Amino acid sequence: MLAKRIIPCLDVKDGMTVKGVNFVNFRNAGDAVELGARYSSQGADELVYLDITASHEGRKTFTELVRRVAARLSIPFTVGGGINELADVDRLLGAGADKVSINSSALRNPQLIEDIATHYGVQVCVVAIDANYEDGRWLCYLNGGRIPTGRDLFQWASEAQARGAGEILFTSMTHDGVKEGYANEALARLSTSLRIPVIASGGAGRKEHFRDAFLLGKADAALAASVFHFGEIDIPDLKTYLSSEGIPLRRETQTI
Q: Which of 2, 122, 150, 182 sits most deeply, having the most CB atoms within 10 A of its CB?
């Protein structure tokens, strides 16, 4: 089994970290830079920062935040939100990000995946997919879970891989913030059908849920937000537990 990654996710609005349930009802979780620095010190393998507003002015604010984050972190981090063209990628990588995550823009313009992969390498391009389980199918959504597309999760993930995605970040809208576990059946189907890494997102509530995402869902990485932001799960404790379950991890546990 390849080494697995633990990835805290920070949804950013006006420089602060927020978290909701099923993509709504957001509450403040703290300063985005300070939280990221803390997670880095605790042994997180990577971080994801998402600008959930991504307005034109918000992009300027977010770029400055990325610079501040880069100055404090010793681990890779991915940024997403409002990335519609290569100029946006240039701006964020220039500010210090290691990867970019595209979601709605990729569905609207799949050529963007190819452009990013060609210009910067597949390792830079993370395609995020928000999908909801409806009538026996996993269907993709745009604009932070607001607009249904009718696109099938597995077909779209396969196309994204073919176009040059380096990773798939799959968030189950059905499970998001509910804390009853990840969508392991869908994760396992994605992980076995794709050649690229799959990141699990949506549903973490207990340490066992991370274990199950790796063993049952066959995910390469597990992403979570509120359980880390509000102190429900401590990253060093989580890594100690996962190691005891025989799961190899990218970084050793650390304490601050």
A: 182
